[in-house]
Design a protein that fits this description.
single chain, alpha/beta, Metallo-beta-lactamase, Chain A, Rossmann fold, 3 domains, eight-stranded mixed β-sheet, seven-stranded mixed β-sheet, about 35% helix, globular
């Protein structure tokens, strides 16, 4: 019975934890790295085809985004998540595949003109559609008997619609251990979704530490703060551009915009328009409306019971097509533009930044965590010029950060979450935080709560029966790989996965008629001869 930490170890994104017991292999989260890699992530120690189950804490791409790649490489097991997470993954993984394919196509047009090698997308739409067929929706608080050796329960983490902490009971022989994976823990008092839930017992706890080194300031009235920014920007004749994650943060922004309008906080510009320029955000908003009863907090539910949609209002415009998106920047009236991605790494937001960063009358407001190395982080930290679509853009717009508007718990909230365990866990593993933050927060938990806390590196492996570290992973810093090496590595891995599947088919054919086996062998030999060099 072992756990190996693969992703989001001494880093913030790319969450992935590998657990093995008996003959079973499972993953908890399978996320994509966003921003530069600080440490080299270790590979999953078994073939993807040998993974039996994957459990997803929530739909954000840094927790779910490599599932299509796992499928591409041979995974055919089951993926368990809450019902809302399954619904959100359906749109987010398709969107991620679309981005992968579109960016590869754009880069290949440039590469062809420059005589450079072809860029291969990390995965495509077929991979996303394929893995989605393996999802199993689960309800909060319902214990799921996954197999004889494993049962799990999802509880609300208060971070995103459908987000969860996962309680996991593992049996191996006569031994049983309980592991709790925090997922991303919410900050509480969110306008739409419920507060995070506490868990009372565990042998081991894996806890995030995104904001494990800081305290959020007392939350202001965000609607009032946004109204001030809107008044300043519209008075100058500019646009308010908000890079926001399509799922979660966009819907919260709509909640505050509705308040600004219905409470007449901006009498000078009451008819301002808000453009949600993201097909993904539009679909996500529909999913939010489908999960009102299970996921919304009491205040939001009371509005709905009064016949008020908390995230809709006059002047709200949804942009779906590329033509509708382009038209936004040809409309000279001051407006709000909500677009993704939240860290400005991809998507339509980059076009809106191109049209607004050079304008001294416009304002860019960041409302979420920015990973170091992303364009959002660069802008928030005072960049005077950035490059977008091959063009250097001078930064003259006002760049603001709305403090305290965070989807992650701060140091005190994280400490309180760990302290809620009535008996001290055997060990607490601190993940999903910047390099020094994980170490500092682990030391803080040891000092304040007296728990044995450790910040694992990628590849660190622990025996869950004894708690001992049985293998140390790499402490080496990652080296940047060229696009060519990434592409060839991905395609070669796909080829290896196909070969592994073929070998499994061959082994399964034992006992077939001799003439069928001979025909099968001839087909393999013919194929091999074709590709021999």
């Amino acid at each position: 019975m072992q756990i190996e930490f693969l992703g989001a170890a001494h880093e913030v994104t790319g969450s992935c934890h590998f657990v093995s017991f008996g003959e079973r292999n499972i993953l908890v989260d399978c996320g994509m790295e966003q921003g530069p890699d600080l440490y080299e992530n270790q590979e999953i120690p078994v073939k993807p085809s040998s993974i039996d189950y994957v459990f997803i804490t929530h739909a954000h791409i840094d927790h779910s985004g490599l599932l299509p790649l796992l499928y591409n490489h041979g995974f055919r097991g089951q993926v368990f998540a809450t019902t809302a997470t399954v619904q959100l993954c359906e749109i987010m993984l398709k969107d991620s595949a679309h981005i992968q394919m579109s960016e590869a196509e754009w880069k290949n047009r440039k590469a062809k003109r420059a005589g450079l090698p072809e860029v291969v997308p990390l995965y495509d739409m077929n991979d996303a559609m394929g893995v989605l067929q393996h999802f199993i929706p689960c309800e909060y608080h319902h214990t799921v008997e996954v197999c004889e050796e494993l049962k799990v329960r999802f509880v609300d983490a208060g971070h995103l619609l459908g987000s969860s902490s996962i309680e996991m009971w593992i049996t191996e022989g006569n031994d049983q251990k309980k592991i709790v994976f925090s997922g991303d823990i919410g900050n509480g008092n969110r306008p739409l979704i419920k507060n995070p839930e506490y868990i009372k017992d565990a042998d081991y706890v894996v806890v995030e530490s995104t904001y494990g080194d800081r305290l959020h300031s007392a939350p202001p009235d965000y609607a009032a703060e946004l109204a001030k920014v809107l008044k300043d920007t519209f008075t100058r004749g500019g646009n308010l551009v908000i890079p926001a994650f399509s799922v979660g943060r966009t819907q919260e922004m709509l909640y505050y915009m509705r308040r600004i309008k219905t409470e007449h906080m901006l009498p000078e510009f009451e008819n301002f328009e808000v453009y949600v320029d993201s097909p993904l955000a539009v679909e996500a908003t529909t999913i939010f409306n489908k999960n009102v009863r299970n996921c919304f907090r009491e205040e939001a539910l009371s509005l709905i019971n009064e016949g008020i949609n908390p995230i809709s209002f006059p002047g709200l415009r949804m942009s779906i097509t590329s033509e509708e998106s382009i038209a936004i920047n040809f409309d000279e009236a001051p407006k709000v533009i909500l677009s993704a991605s939240g860290m400005c790494e991809a998507g339509r937001i980059r076009h809106h930044l191109k049209h607004n960063l050079w304008r001294a009358d416009s304002t860019i407001v960041f409302v979420g965590f920015q990973v170091p190395g992303t364009l959002g982080f660069t802008l928030l930290n005072g960049a005077k010029e950035v490059k977008l679509f091959g063009e250097n853009i001078e930064v003259r717009a006002k760049i603001l950060n709305l403090p305290g508007l965070s989807g992650h718990a701060d140091k005190d909230h994280l400490t309180k979450w760990v302290a809620a365990f009535e008996e001290k866990p055997q060990k607490v593993f601190v993940v999903h935080g910047e390099d020094q933050v994980t170490e500092e927060f682990a030391a803080h938990l040891h000092r304040e709560l007296g728990v044995e806390a450790y910040a694992p590196f990628s590849g660190d492996t622990f025996d869950l029966l004894t708690g001992a570290c049985i293998k140390e992973g790499s402490r080496e810093h990652a080296e940047k790989k060229s696009l060519k090496s990434k592409a060839s590595s991905n395609v070669f891995a796909r080829l290896l996965a196909a070969g592994a599947r073929l070998l499994e088919v061959i082994r399964g054919s034992e006992g077939m008629a001799n003439k069928d086996l001979a025909k099968f062998a001839d087909q393999i030999n013919a194929l091999s001869k074709k590709w021999e060099r």
